[in-house]
Amino acid sequence: MDPFMVAAGSAVVGAMASEGWNDARTAIAALWRKAHPERVPAIEADLEEVRAEVLAARKAEDRQTEEELAVEWRRRLGRLIAADPKAAEELRRIVDGLTPPTGGAPTVMIANASGRARLFQSGGDINVRGR
Fold first, then answer.
1. What's the whole-model pTM score?
2. pLDDT in tens, 84-101
3. 69/33 Cα distance (integer angstroms)
4. Is 49 exposed, middle or buried (0-12, 13-18, 19+ CB in 10 A)?
5. Would you list the DSSP string of 98-131?
6. Confidence (pLDDT) at 40
7. What is the dihedral of CA 70, 72, 75, 77, to 10 degrees?
8. 13 vs 23: CA distance, rounded Å
9. pLDDT given for residue 100 in this prediction
10. DSSP string over 15-55
């Protein structure tokens, strides 16, 4: 999958648990309004439902559920962009607004492991102990 779409899905789901959620929700709905105005009420309802799931996952420290929700939004955003390529620029602007400034593009980490491989990725400090 396109690294930008990975970052976009993660940024949208991450924003669901942030103070800026109302602005993010409005921007995401506006993106759909341009391409598929008839779908906006369903998208707004889905955004609120998924937000409740994200907040519950954060409270339970359930990273797997949060990642699954991000994958779902990556796919939705990907389909939206495929149907309306002009929306990509607007989505990039939205994602830039959702992502904390780090001096560049959002950090995207992609890893694949097989067999007995072990992967460690971190967006900050990491301390790995064991064999």
1. 0.71
2. 888 899 999 998 888 665
3. 22
4. exposed
5. HSPP-SSSPP-------TT------SS-------
6. 94
7. -70
8. 13
9. 60
10. HTTSTTHHHHHHHHHHHHHHH-GGGHHHHHHHHHHHHHHHH
